[in-house]
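Here is one chain, start to finish.
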Amino acid sequence: MRGLRELGVICAFTALVTMPRPVSTQQAPIHAPDGGTRQMIVSIAVPSIPDSPFSATVNTEWTRYLDDGSTLVLGNHRTIARDGQGRVFQERRGLAPVSDAAQATRLTMIEIADPAAQQIARCVPDRTQCELQFYRSLPAAVPSRTGAMPRGAMKSESLGTQTVEGFDAVGTRETTTLAGAAVGADRSLTVTREFWYSPRLAINLSTKRTDPRSGIELFTVTDIRTSEPDPSLFQLPKGARVIDHRGGR
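Its structure:
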């Protein structure tokens, strides 16, 4: 009897030890890190031209049409400038809902292009850091073309001239038909771009892009001043750490 009692105690103890623990219902599910999706649009280009100083505000409005029929509209405002030496200053800012006019967009980067030094500095305010790279000046203007392209065809047409923000502007519309298979679509796509170009400033005062893949992108230049901009705009931020990516230079 004693042996049986001892055997029963051992079996009971073993059962308690090997019994699996219940899984806590409060534990959150887990997964590996996810990179997410980042989208950006490239606004107007400002070529480096000496003896043609100006400063202005670039306004961006991006309208996207979602699958459920709703509309998403984002935008921002940023400062651009060019001095008499041809140096170019540009802010880069994040996008925010245009319905919230009081919401300021975050300054993500400052770009300072210096053609004499053949360098462009890209400064990140949050890191107080500037990276230097080689800079190649952009052409003051490029011709619009009509004809076949690697993935489709383009048609260009003149829109005449008009006054935009007090400056004479030349209008052009480019319509590009893309072959569906070339861009991964099941049908051909039509993309239009409309420009109003100022020969005096050598920039597009208004650009409108309509693309079924991304929506409507509208860029307008306002608050144009042709006086010499503040020289401090073209100086690297004080105390910024400079990283030179130009090799031996």
